């Protein structure tokens, strides 16, 4: 049977197998799910064996195991390193799920459940593509190395150790990752750029202890007010970041690239609907697509301090706190930007308080040309899988691993993602469009076939 | 035996009895302590009977009972209404207490425990003063009505119902309250002014749900940033509130009163030490005492939104929240000020978000002349109790009940408090200075004796 036909006929079988994977609550952040995480690793190892990979092993790390497998039976053919993760975000708040997080459920053409899009569903696309190739062609047309890790949602710390100790083993002609989103339903997409990320926390400390706002209010510094005054100055009227030097190294996007990005079928109306706010708000002089993909930002991610319970408590707290992040674009250097941001904020802290400053995580931006012949193969494979022409996009999020791999192995990175921007990857009611899941299997099988013919 | 000598000799007995009262965890805010609250009411009723009051009753309300008692056996003599409360604040966070909250413990001349200062210790001062008068003089030299309520820490809602239904029963020549603080150790104080209070909550709503700050950041409104920009504009460089009309009705404090207040033995150095911040911060042109007692404020009491847990989560939240309050002085009208504040904030809310606005509580400011002869009696009694000249002070906090009683009964209100500003009334390690407790008993006995001689 022809591969595409086989994939089409086995729709039920794909889903039955995926449900088994999704039902394992492999929540890497929660210690009580440690055994579930291990069970998921075993499940993945078993599937890699079934689709014909060799040397499949569960590699124990300081936290959660990663799964490795390979098939090197196509001499002279390209070698691909595929990366994915089997761990998932915590499902809380549970009461906001329409159907249980770990009970996969189909509604309106979407499959709902934690991990459907991020990233179990996308890992499973590859497993099913490999299965289809094995069933219809007998062997894999290329050489393949696979890493599926279990710590992506908690920082991938041990993954990087593993990579550094196994550089020659992992050597490949290209890296393939399926952990991103398509531009829109029916628009298969290849992502060639990601923003970098610095994530900070600042704590402002005023009085030595919480004070009664009646007895002390009017004569003492209020760390909450000082926090608002600090962050209010970090954007100007045009929504540009006011940190001196912040834009110094920002790459000017070429006229040609701007034109290409703005010609994409990006539906601003749909975007507005997804956001659901009364109006949008972004840096003046740039389109929404440019604001999201090509321009750096500074965003508050969390603020807290004082009384946040029911009703009233008249307190001036000792401390206030903010978590915030900068998204970075080429050629901003995260280390330099972190230093500029910290220096600027410390300068703004008034003498009535002190502050603590932490950098919680940091990752470089990444943009790469899509000129390598593998991109052409991917482009055709996506068109076959979805019946629609694929587009080249960038994305606003960050995948530090991609940048690190690119820097280490200097090979093309193909980000072939089958999620959608509104799929609630880290929120309740996470889902994947079933047509994207099935289209993905077909696309990936065709991609591996296409590489084999190069 | 002379009354003062009796009080001095019975120090151990006062404390043993007080410990019994303090050991009852009468936490009005916590449902699981409902029986403890009732036990405390019974304890108070029993003590009022023992010191010779008649018609002692435990009045059930919709929430917690209040205790009433009276002694009307001094015809032609003044009638005093004494108010206090037997309920206490929750003790949490428990781990910050040096000794357990409900196990009274003496350290360095202070008695530690929840309720020592606010307000069980101060209620007990009156109980022991009445006991001393009964033991040494046989009868009370004046007429007395007593209300000790059990809902002060949760808003006193039912108290006001009770007062409204019992106006003629409660009629008196003066109200006496012991729920305030002395200016400093060794400085007995009569409080003649309180600030009013409006307590608000504002919720800012942007995106329809939490968004990924990578995927969406740069093109959408961030309710956290908007909250900081909003509150940063509410004070000017001189720390004045920028709400138009906010200061319109603020009473100009007379030159004589300013002089008197600034001549008080207020130790700014001690105040700085208590606050413990690197520097103070207040409205330009006013001394600390004036800032605290005579000037209105706007203070944030709590802010929250987005991710506030450990580590990093890259979210742009749908909502942000702030609790804030204005402290008001004569002749600011809380209703008018609440309207001005809400109107101003609504005007500042940008079009990208919506907002909810709530007024959670409201109370008028109060300042009254201390010209009535009862003040002279109180002044002398405090001097006898403490061996130091008493002072007239205002205070920055709010006791809505005092204003309401003053408006209803139009009689002098004598705020004779024996706490101290740093006594941690609503915090861990609440305490009362033992010398204030003993001095208070003597002062109150002398006060009642003095009124009897008018």
State the gist of this model:
The structure is a homodimer of 454-residue chains. In chain A, strands 1, 2, 3, 6, 7, 8, 15, 16 and 17 form a 9-stranded mixed sheet that branches. A 4-stranded antiparallel sheet of chain A has the order 11-13-9-14, covered by helices on one side. In chain A, strands 4-5-18 form a 3-stranded antiparallel sheet.
Label this structure with key terms.
454 residues, alpha+beta, nine-stranded mixed sheet, 2 domains, Aminopeptidase, homodimer, 14 helices, globular, four-stranded antiparallel sheet, Alpha-Beta Plaits
Number of helices of chain A: 14
* CATH class term of the largest domain in chain A: Alpha Beta
Oligomer: homodimer
Strand content of chain A: 15-25%
CATH topology of the largest domain in chain A: Aminopeptidase
Poorly predicted sequence stretches spanning 5 or more consecutive residues of chain A = none
Find the CATH superfamily of the largest domain in chain A: Zn peptidases
How many distinct folded domains of chain A? Answer: 2
User: Approximately how much helix is present in the residues of chain A?
Assistant: 25-40%
The profile of the biggest β sheet of chain A is: 9 strands, mixed
- Give the beta-strand count of chain A: 18
Q: What class, by secondary structure content of chain A?
A: alpha+beta
Q: How does the overall form of chain A come out from the CA principal axes? A: globular
CATH architecture group name of the largest domain in chain A = 3-Layer(aba) Sandwich
Most extensive chain-chain interface: A-B, 85 and 84 residues
């Amino acid at each position: 049977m022809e591969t595409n036909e086989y994939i089409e006929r086995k729709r039920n079988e794909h889903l039955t197998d995926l449900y088994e994977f999704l039902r394992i609550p492999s929540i890497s952040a929660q210690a009580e799910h440690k055994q579930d995480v291990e069970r998921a690793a075993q499940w993945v190892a078993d599937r890699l064996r079934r689709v014909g990979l060799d040397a499949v092993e569960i590699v124990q790390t300081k936290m959660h195991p990663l799964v490795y497998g390979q098939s090197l039976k196509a001499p002279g053919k390209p070698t691909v390193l595929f990366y994915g993760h089997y761990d998932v975000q915590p499902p809380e708040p549970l009461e906001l799920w329409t159907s249980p997080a770990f009970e996969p459920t189909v509604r309106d053409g979407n499959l709902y459940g934690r991990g459907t899009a991020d990233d179990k569903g996308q890992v499973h696309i590859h497993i099913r593509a490999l299965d289809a190739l094995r069933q219809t062609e007998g062997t894999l047309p290329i050489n393949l190395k696979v890493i599926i890790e279990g710590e992506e949602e908690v920082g991938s710390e041990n993954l990087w150790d593993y990579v550094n100790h196994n550089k020659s083993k992992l050597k490949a002609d290209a890296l393939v990752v399926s952990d991103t989103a398509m531009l829109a339903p029916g628009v298969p997409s290849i992502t060639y750029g990601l923003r970098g990320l610095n994530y900070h926390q600042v704590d402002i400390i005023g009085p030595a202890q919480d004070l009664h706002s009646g007895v002390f209010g009017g004569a003492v510094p209020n760390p909450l007010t000082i926090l608002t005054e600090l962050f209010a100055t970090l954007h100007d009227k045009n929504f540009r970041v006011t940190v001196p030097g912040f834009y110094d190294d920002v790459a000017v996007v070429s006229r040609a690239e701007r034109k290409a990005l703005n010609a994409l079928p990006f539906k601003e109306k749909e975007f507005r609907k997804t956001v659901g706010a009364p109006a949008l708000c972004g840096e003046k002089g740039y389109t929404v697509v440019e604001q999201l993909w090509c321009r750096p930002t500074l965003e508050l991610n969390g603020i807290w301090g004082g009384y946040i319970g029911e009703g009233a408590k008249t307190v001036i707290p000792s401390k206030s706190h903010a978590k915030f992040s900068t998204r970075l674009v080429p050629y901003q250097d995260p280390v330099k930007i972190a230093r500029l941001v910290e220096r600027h904020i410390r300068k703004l802290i008034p003498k009535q308080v002190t502050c603590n400053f932490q950098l919680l995580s940091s990752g470089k931006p990444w943009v790469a040309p899509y000129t390598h012949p593998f991109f052409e193969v991917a482009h055709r494979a996506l068109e076959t899988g979805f019946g629609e022409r694929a587009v080249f996009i960038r994305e606003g999020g960050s995948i530090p691993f991609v940048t690190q791999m690119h820097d280490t192995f200097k090979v093309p990175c193909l980000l072939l993602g089958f999620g959608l921007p509104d799929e609630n990857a880290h929120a309740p009611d996470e889902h994947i469009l079933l047509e994207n899941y099935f289209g993905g299997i077909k696309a990936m099988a065709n991609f591996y076939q296409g590489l084999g013919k190069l």
